[in-house]
Design brief:
alpha/beta; globular
Length: 385
């Protein structure tokens, strides 16, 4: 029986993970649940899965949870989130808390020697230089939940780094791939949230439209698979059937294909190192439309260019990139800045920041705070103009 802690349990990844756990009660048991503020849904999840401990970021909401869920220890705030990770006796933590807020609990899990199924890509983007060496020291596995990295993880089992020439991440291109660049000024949040192939949260959906999501995944792949940015390519594949491709030294390629459903990647991480029946729909080759591939133009997608530049700069640059992007996307979603201004804000913050070697977790969190303040000012400058 594998005991699971789900951080971000009321979000799309968390809900999908709990659906999979319910399909295999003989294999998985829920040890802890954590959410930001959705107390009603968390109460339902606690009653269904009976975790030992549950955490809510909001202290007032946590009191409501405590009154409705006798038998489950309820904790709150940042410390509560860390408790949910370390005191639940979990075998694996699904880290699906959105944004930089997921870094501290992810770090705590790895430091405690607990395996992590990482859906919070920001943790690896910000702190891959800390997390990967720590995982080796603590003998904890960090397993990717992004569909692209899960695909690479599957393909590369049994291969050495010296056999690999290039990693290729696929991107749908988002809802505006065929839109004339001049029309991006008119894009609304509602339009940006209509992703053509994936059902995801607002922030990651906007990141998919700007291709920043793929830029963050390039940085993630660098840490997961120890490849430089020059050896990690991005191609536009609108059908989202092939999730990643590996090109080997001998010129051959291997691709991973599956249905367009995040539960495939989640289940791979949950079951690893076993390969179990997910009970998910199977890919029907005979119903597929023609598979297309296009160049990911760095001029058309400046956020992807900025991610490659941050990876090359190293140190705290990816953390700065991530913080500026999170703030810019939040400002766009509340209609304070236009869609096309997102990369401008990020570039402004990167140019105004001093990149330092990564020292520790507190340094990265302070870097994140400073970059967010700079991004807020940059957005305000655009608003006032």
């Amino acid at each position: 029986m594998k005991r699971i802690a789900v951080l971000g349990s009321t979000g799309s990844i968390g809900e999908s993970a709990l659906d999979l756990v319910s399909l295999h009660p003989e294999r998985f048991e829920v040890a802890a649940l954590a959410a930001r503020s959705n107390v009603g849904r968390l109460i339902e999840q606690i009653r269904a899965h009976r975790p030992r401990i549950a955490a809510l970021e909001d202290a007032e909401a946590a009191e409501t949870l405590r009154q409705n869920c006798p038998g489950t220890e309820v904790v709150s705030g940042r410390e509560g989130l860390l408790q949910a990770v370390t005191f639940a006796d979990a075998d694996i933590v699904i880290s699906a808390v959105a944004g930089a807020a997921g870094l501290a609990p992810t770090y705590a899990a790895v430091e405690s020697g607990i395996d992590v199924a990482l859906a919070n890509k920001e943790s690896m983007v910000m702190a891959g230089d800390l997390l990967m060496p720590l995982a080796r020291r603590r003998q904890a596995r960090i397993l990717p939940v992004d569909s692209e990295h899960a695909a690479l993880h599957q393909i590369l089992r049994g291969f050495g780094s010296e056999e690999i020439r290039r990693l290729i991440l696929t991107a749908s291109g988002g809802p505006f791939f065929h839109l004339e660049p001049a029309l991006l000024l008119q894009v609304t949040p509602e339009q940006a949230l209509r992703h053509p192939t994936w059902d995801m949260g607002p922030k990651i959906t906007v990141d998919s439209a700007t291709l920043m999501n793929k830029g963050l995944e390039v940085i993630e792949a660098h840490h997961f698979f120890q490849k430089s940015g020059d050896d990690i390519a991005v191609v536009i594949h609108p059908q989202s059937v092939i999730h990643a491709i590996v090109e080997f030294r001998d010129g051959t390629m291997q691709a991973q294909m599956s249905i367009t459903d995040m539960r495939s990647a989640i289940f791979h991480a949950l079951a690893f190192p076993e390969c179990l029946d997910s009970r998910l729909p199977r890919l029907d080759l005979f119903s597929l439309k023609p598979l297309e591939f296009f160049n990911a133009d760095l001029v058309r997608f400046p956020c992807l260019r900025l991610a490659y530049e941050a990876l090359r700069a190293g140190g705290t640059a990816p953390a700065i990139l991530n913080a500026a992007n999170e703030e810019a996307v939040a400002q766009f979603l509340t209609e304070r800045i236009p869609f096309s201004a997102i990369p401008n804000v990020i570039e402004t913050v990167l140019q105004a920041s001093v990149v330092e070697p990564v020292a520790d977790l507190e340094q990265l969190l302070e870097t994140d705070r400073i970059a967010r303040r700079r991004a807020t000012r940059a957005c305000q400058t655009l608003t006032d103009a």
